[in-house]
Write a structure and sequence with these properties.
Blueprint: H1 20-44, H2 46-54, H3 57-75, H4 77-100, E1 109-111, E2 115-117, H5 127-155, H6 158-173, H7 182-187, H8 194-208, H9 212-230, H10 235-240, H11 245-269
Antiparallel strand pairs: 1-2
Helix pairs in contact: 3-4, 4-5, 4-6, 5-6, 5-11, 6-11, 8-9
């Protein structure tokens, strides 16, 4: 009968538990050099930061970065950057026209998923000048989208073509004839009654394609329409909307022509995807 001899157990190795404090110390040692360098850089060039805040560039830049991050979170950083730049081109059309008219205007402020706004310290002198300000945004914005389209065709980039399509859609949506959209401010020079058609069209869009942005624009547009309707009999209001026939015709031709051009551009840049 054979005897079984068990194998000796391996010697126990020393076990040293990992303490969270040691991890933190190690991470702090890795981070303190770049953080110290950043602090030194900021201290050395603090006058640049002060100038940025003073010129209000920081507000625009910060709101742009927040918007880029919001759009990038859903559709990727390339789309986020491209879309916000198209928004910037659109808003700069308003800014340039306001400053041409001598109306003080702020730099654009970007609001994620709502676009951007430009602050005015005073209204233009009349509906004709307001229409010029309103149409300047979609005109320059459409040119910006067209540049992206041309680049997309030259580089054979579906992404750039799709981004151009989004830019055309953005500017066409802004031409809806209801305040606070650009189209509502433009058609006031044609006839304020067109606002009612815009409101009806927006209600239809909100019913068939419900989303929070349409509902918000609908509420704001309805309130603004009611406010302007209530003030229609005031002498200053009547004078504001008094437009020469040639001015009315110029706004109508520009408005309708731009809307048709944007519709054609969207059709040309629409990319079909196989399911």
């Amino acid at each position: 009968m054979s005897q079984f001899t068990p194998e000796p157990e391996p010697p126990l190795r020393d076990y040293k538990p990992i303490h969270p404090e040691s991890r933190l110390r190690e991470l702090a040692r890795k981070l303190w050099v770049p953080l110290a360098a950043l602090g030194l850089l900021l201290a050395k060039f603090k006058w640049i930061l002060l100038a940025v805040f003073k010129l209000k560039v920081f507000t625009t830049s910060a709101s742009m970065l927040v918007s880029v991050a919001a759009y990038a979170w859903l559709w990727g950083w390339r789309f986020g950057v491209g879309f916000v730049l198209l928004l910037l081109v659109h808003e700069m059309g308003h800014v340039l026209e306001l400053r041409r008219q001598g109306v003080p205007a702020s730099a654009p402020l970007f609001i994620p998923f709502m676009g951007a706004v430009v602050g005015m310290k005073q209204m233009p002198k009349d509906a004709w000048r307001e229409a010029q300000v309103a149409l300047a945004g979609p005109i320059l914005g459409s040119l910006g989208a067209a540049v992206v389209w041309i680049a997309g065709e030259a580089l054979d980039s579906d992404f750039l073509v799709a981004l151009a399509f989004t830019g055309f859609l953005l500017n066409l949506f802004n031409l809806l004839p209801i305040v606070p959209l650009d189209g509502g401010r433009a058609v006031a020079a044609i006839h304020p009654a067109i606002w009612a058609l815009g409101l009806a069209g927006l209600i239809a869009l909100a019913v068939f394609f419900p989303n929070p942005i349409l509902l918000l624009v609908l509420v704001l547009g309805g309130l603004e329409l009611w406010h302007r309707w209530q003030a229609r009999g005031h002498p200053d209001t009547a004078a504001y909307y008094r437009v020469q026939p040639w001015q009315r015709a110029a706004v109508a031709v520009t408005y309708i022509g731009l809307a048709l051009a944007l519709g054609l551009a969207m059709s040309a840049t629409h990319i079909e995807r196989d399911l």
